Amino acid sequence: MKTTAILLMAYGTPRRVEDIEAYYTHIRRGNPPTKELLDELVGRYQAIGGLSPLNAITQQQSNELLEALRKQDPKRNFRIYEGMKHTSPFIADAVADIANDHVDEVIGVVLAPHYSTMSIGVYQKEAEEAIQHHQIPNFHMVTSWHLQPAFLASLHQRILLTREKLQEAGCQKVKTLFSAHSLPTRILEVNDPYPTQLQETSQALAAMAGIADWDFAWQSAGRTREPWLGPDILLKIEEIAQEGYDGILSCPVGFVADHLEVLYDIDLEAKGKAQSLGMTLMRTPSLNADEGMIEAIVNAIQVLLG
């Protein structure tokens, strides 16, 4: 029986409060944060309950994915190896484990639907370097799955549910606002597909839900001197308020799991901003380990397996 390794890659998050500084330092490419920046990040984690649930969600996604792959293709021996971008086990650690197990082929997939040279492209580069170092043959990469029907269907159901809740709350004029993590504007110089893929997902969902009144904003921009993609979601919320809306249906389409950029940036910061302007903001529930999302990833993997 052929053994297929799935290199499942994700962002990662600290497992203990004591790990936050090392995590932040890794994100900053080895540059420790100032005390002010560290205190602010710790404060954000405290605001959502102490730590992010992302590690537990990633583990659940991994478990569900393995079960679904084995069910769909029982003639293959699937194994999943988790590799994180900013916490252990790192991507290189996972690839080392794959090398020790002598598998027949490796499929890389990132728990993010939309491709960018600065996001999935970075995961892919790290994976390929480790694969080459260990001389592992037959490596293939799922680069995006942003239009997988099961992925869209799961988000569509969440949009309908959230729209119903806004109606029950008495909102008369609702704007649907899709969002994703901002990236530096220099990605536009290389025709990076990230903005286009996000628009494609948003347009597909709007069409499925029969929504004509929607917009897109960027969120969670990094604190660097270079410009980042905009408009920022908080500025967009101000514009929406000025246009006379009393409700916002927030769909952070670029994220699939509950973590800081959703639980803090949307649920606390964006929602608070909307409330201060007399509006109600409700967010679509995250997919996390939703059956439809797992199906979407399985289908994307099967395309590579043939």
Overall shape: it is globular
Number of domains: 2
Number of helices: 11
Tell me the series of helices and strands, N- to C-terminal.
EHHHEHEHEHEHEHEHHEH
**Count of distinct strands:** 8
Structural class: alpha/beta
Give the CATH class of the largest domain: Alpha Beta
Spatial extent as radius of gyration: 20 Å
Major sheet: 4 strands, parallel
Strands side by side in the biggest sheet: 2-1-3-4
Amount of beta strand = 15-25%
What is the CATH fold-level name of the largest domain?
Answer: Rossmann fold
Task: Explain the layout of strands and helices.
Elements: E1 3-10, H1 20-27, H2 35-47, H3 54-72, E2 77-84, H4 91-101, E3 105-110, H5 120-133, E4 139-141, H6 149-168, E5 174-181, H7 194-209, E6 214-219, H8 233-242, E7 247-251, H9 260-263, H10 265-276, E8 280-283, H11 291-305
Parallel strand pairs: 1-2, 1-3, 3-4, 5-6, 5-7, 7-8
Helix pairs in contact: 3-11, 4-5, 6-7, 6-11, 8-10
Describe this structure in words.
This protein is 46% helix and 16% strand. By secondary structure, it is an alpha/beta fold. The protein folds into two domains: 3-145 and 290-305, Rossmann fold; 149-283, Rossmann fold (3-Layer(aba) Sandwich), CATH 3.40.50. Strands 2-1-3-4 form a four-stranded parallel beta sheet, sandwiched between helices. Strands 6-5-7-8 form a four-stranded parallel beta sheet, with helices on both faces. The longest helix has 20 residues, at 149-168. It starts with a strand and ends with a helix.
